[in-house]
């Protein structure tokens, strides 16, 4: 049986090389001239010759031992364009005793005396590699300039009249915003994907197919009807949605090799390239959350969907101080109320042998603690606004102006070179009759190279002109941030987005007291130490207790008396949680325990001595200041929350504040 093999690659088609029909015609004519007939055809249309994993070719090789005796091809390039593999294929035909005839290259496997075969197959391979190199260079130049047109992702489409303009598709943009909101609210990739599928939201491939049908074209791209984790992750990863155009994300080293990811610093990035669907703050927050969840092995919220309450708003940042494990949210319905609290996961699942305490904290108390802590940090924002100096802005402005002048000088220099080049081209054309085509080709190459350089420099200058310096309006931005914080404080509650935006980590100790680490300053300009504020808070309470003891005329005191009086001043304390302060008073030599239950603690220092000791905790404390005046200052600075009053005591006796 005689078989004919024909192949046409995409590149061949673009360059108007011989078509499939012409190849068959040539093979049929050759067979007729040699009194044979082609019994079967094997065909690969639109497949590169550099690879040999082609359906038609593979089928032909599989049938070679069954019924095929002779294979006809037009030339070696139709058989393949990989030098080594083609030569091995020729040897395989000879070893298997099969007849291969290559018409245009005058090759017959029964007569292997032609010594130029290797040169022919090498030349065919060089053609592929040269073509690949030229295409890669052309694409690379367009990537560098940001002019390469790629298929826009889900949420965007190209303007029908001007394909260079990208437009937002409102309906798709809403779904993208919903995905970001769900992720910030605590949902993971799988939960978001299931939700979108259940809601009947079309997938990106379904939207693309619908768009192709509207435009009267149809691709072979596979359509997936259900959302997957990968689709959600791709949307959350893609900075295209905040207006950034990123090119050369992947590249290959060899012809038809595998694409490899290009490092971010080697990619071509164009910011503010097109309208954004997601603002930069939201995108940055999502990236931080992803990194945090990967680091802490977070597996998503158990909460409901949008519009309903998330039962564990602190789920991604709340940890046990002792074992480092995450705290588990628990909800219990009691006869009086619904109780929500957090407890150490290790203690809850493995018991006291693995973590000695429950580290239990009520959600309402934790919310109050965080709000009070944020209020402290708000004051630091005010200080930054008041002390900001605009001298640095003038320096930065000067630097940018210098860069713009340098770029403009480079552009002018290349434009002058282009003028000289065009003048020289005209002269050479005039004196070199008969060589016009060669001269034109040479000068066109040089001209295109200069034009490409000019466009690239002009793009850089345009980007620099569009750069918005953050420094001039930094005070306004900080005031806006201050307004946001004030709104949170006034509302008295934080949602999941607020918590993710403001809080880095919360560690709860064995007594249920939180140690809060904020993402300092919403504008990253705050140099602020929470430890100093802790000292101020605790030291002021200690000074208030000392003042109450100094004002006691009975020469003795009790836990009940101190708890009632400090609570009356606005700092809530019970007999139990006033005891750490009494112990400190004993250490300072102010109180002395007695055996008389009616007079449990004698006051052993004078009023002047107690006031002097109080200055160790609140420096420059006026001797005439009363406990009420000091407590009023405390409440003005810190508020009256549980966190500020505390259920325990954290004392830094040597620390002073002004």
Give a written overview of the molecule.
With 658 residues, this protein is of the alpha+beta class. A 5-stranded mixed sheet has the order 2-1-3-4-5, with helices on both faces. It has a 3-stranded mixed sheet with strand order 12-16-17. The model is unreliable at 12-17, 302-310, 468-475, 520-530 and 640-658 (pLDDT under 50).
Distance between the termini: 102 Å
Question: Overall 3D geometry?
Answer: elongated
Helix percentage: 40-55%
Per DSSP, what share of the residues sits in E-state strands of 2 or more residues?
5-15%
List the strand order in the largest sheet. 2-1-3-4-5
Structure keywords:
single chain; 658 residues; 3-stranded mixed beta sheet; alpha+beta; disordered C terminus; 23 helices; 5-stranded mixed beta sheet
